[in-house]
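seq as requested:
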Amino acid sequence: MKRIILTITILILIFGSCTNNNKSELGIVSRNKKNENKTVEKKAELNTEIIKEYILQKWISKTIEYNDKSLTFYSFKEPKIKASDEFLIEFKENGELDLRNTTKSYECANGIPYLDKATWEFQKGLYKPETNDYHLTNNLILHIKGGKLAENRFEFKREYKIKSISENKIELIQVHSILEKFITDGNNFYTE
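struct tokens:
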């Protein structure tokens, strides 16, 4: 019995010391809006080719959290954006999302955000029998699996509407949830 109490006390001391700061989120990027140019304003002008032209590059964002209903990405090319302590996100032509954390060091490993798997695609619309394919809509589907070390794991697949897009900034708003999985114990997780 003493051994169990001693083990529990040691675990509380180890894990408790790392998670007491309650702030495991990364800071928000500062932004100067004067430099936004080539912004697509009218919805009629927006199509998948224009979106691809803008989106296929490196972006900077605060950490992507499970409960985020809107996402904002800032261009990596923007000189006024600080890229340290943020996530570097690259939308690739093959539908993969390359996500890297740029934080150089942490006080402790608990709460470090990580992403295992991430993909993106355009939401499919109406079926076109003449091409045996689907018409693509301007909405994006993001499928992301990740979590925070020793705190939680998550996986979501969500449809996002493009609120605004330019060569310097993309704003996405969630319109539909396709898949939602979240667990807080960090040990047991579903199998695929």
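The chain has one domain: 31-183.
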